[in-house]
Amino acid sequence: MSNPIGEWQEKLEKFEKAKQSLRYNTDKPKWSLVHWKSMEPMVRVLEFGAKKYSPHNWKRGFVGSELLESAMRHLTAMMDGEVTDSESGLSHAGHVQCNMMFYNYFNNFNNKENDNTEKVCCSSPNSTGSSFGTDTCECTSQ
Predict the structure, then answer these.
(1) Which residues partner with 138 through β-bridges?
(2) Is 53 helix (H, G, I), strand (E, B) or coil?
(3) Alpha carbons 118 and 110: distance in angstroms, whole number
(4) Helix or strand or coil: residue 139?
(5) What is the tens place of the pLDDT at every residue in 11-49?
(6) Fewer CB within 10 Å, N- or C-terminus of the chain?
(7) Can you spell out the DSSP letters for 109-136?
(8) Is the pTM of this model over 0.70?
């Protein structure tokens, strides 16, 4: 037995969609899935680092294994029941988020060749610059 009301609603929905602009977003990141307030601990750690070192100092580069070591220190502290880092007084989770953001920045977006153990990603005076006006990285072997 057919449902004439359901069929009518389906036709109406198709008509309404047809009035909208076309968008081709298949396979594009769906940023609406991110809970932005959950990123605040990371931002607080970035602010701490900006005061301690300088803003965007992290973009100058790291040895990839050092980022992973730091993330693990904060993770194991969390696993042992610690909530905040004794040096910064900030969330261990925020420190983990920062380390992983740095890791992704250098390994996924900035340097496809970094093997995370033998390479250092560092600023180059001949680089093009990022959206924040700081140098992008060119990685070289240690």
Answers:
(1) 122
(2) coil
(3) 16
(4) strand
(5) 777 777 777 777 778 899 999 999 999 999 999 999 999
(6) N
(7) II-TT--SSSEEEEE-TTS---TTS---
(8) no
